[in-house]
């Protein structure tokens, strides 16, 4: 289930974000978390299964109709199980009237999700 980020989840979110290649540097990681916490257009979500948070998806509203995914990360022990694809699907369901796109880093993954969804 996709849940909205809260400050109480900061350490978990930072841990998941640190798996992103662009977020390896601690200073950069802290800036990113602060951006999600303080800027209204930036929204961060966590993927919760039972009581565990195993994934993260974050993005920015580039305009009133387009949500662009900036970050997507899954705990390594839960990878290759469709968690990332399920987070993308849940994001699209959360914003059914809007277009969900991705930045250059995430674009290939989003395209793969779209192809798999079209095939099923």
TrEMBL record:
Q: Which UniProt keywords apply?
A: Acyltransferase, Transferase
Query: Which SUPFAM superfamilies does this chain map to?
Result: Acyl-CoA N-acyltransferases (Nat)
> Looking at the keywords, is Acyltransferase present?
yes
Enumerate the Pfam families for this protein: Acetyltransf_1 (PF00583)
Source organism superkingdom: Bacteria
Q: Which PROSITE patterns match?
A: GNAT (PS51186)
Q: Which part of the chain is the N-acetyltransferase domain? A: 3-120
- Listed name of the protein: Riboflavin biosynthesis RibT protein
Can you name one GO molecular function term for this protein?
acyltransferase activity, transferring groups other than amino-acyl groups
């Amino acid at each position: 289930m996709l849940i909205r980020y809260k400050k109480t989840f900061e350490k978990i979110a930072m841990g998941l974000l640190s798996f992103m290649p662009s977020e390896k540097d601690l200073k950069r990681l802290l800036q990113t978390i602060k951006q999600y916490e303080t800027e209204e257009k930036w929204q961060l979500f966590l993927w919760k299964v039972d009581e565990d948070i195993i994934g993260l998806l974050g993005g920015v509203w580039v305009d009133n109709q387009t949500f662009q995914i900036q970050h997507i990360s899954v705990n390594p022990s839960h990878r290759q199980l469709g968690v990332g694809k399920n987070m993308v699907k849940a994001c699209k369901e959360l914003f059914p009237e809007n277009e969900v796109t991705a930045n250059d880093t995430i674009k290939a993954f989003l395209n793969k999700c779209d192809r798999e969804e079209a095939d099923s």
